[in-house]
Sequence to fold (186 residues):
Amino acid sequence: MDGYSSENPESLKASIYRFLQKLFIEPDEEFLNFLQQNSKELEDIGIEFNGSLNLENLQMEYTRLFLGPKGHMPPYESVFLEGRLWGNSASEIKNFIRGIGLELEKDINMPPDHISIEFEILEKIISSKDVEINGMYIDFLKRHVAWIFDFLTQLILKTELKFYQTSFAFSKVFLKEEMATSSRSI
Fold:
């Protein structure tokens, strides 16, 4: 998967976080191409495509799940935990990004507690050659990933596309393992 090296577990984790980051941004041709180019690897980790995956289906389900018009689930930590956009979580993550000098994707126009940005932060931390930044991985996981489990559980029940259902289920398993591994390494 996208830069994956089986000899380097951090490379695999970074690739998974890149996938998760893309999963929670409105699908476009680039995402569809990514899925097609990595379909074998994605199927190997349990993500099902059911042969009918196309951009229109992805966009319709993404809109229904995350944008509305009703019953949707905005993918922001502060909305999920506090019921409002730009809550404490957003401020905390914004300060975290500034504090360690992370440079994120340039065209992101959303609050910093959007789930895709949180996954991007984890990918950047795990990929960092800076030992101090790399050491912040466990702290960020503990502070900003716990909400994602309940969010993903609700999404698994809500989605109508097998692709999203299996992607969300994989995300939960992966993050649960990361949390468990990081707890053991303290």
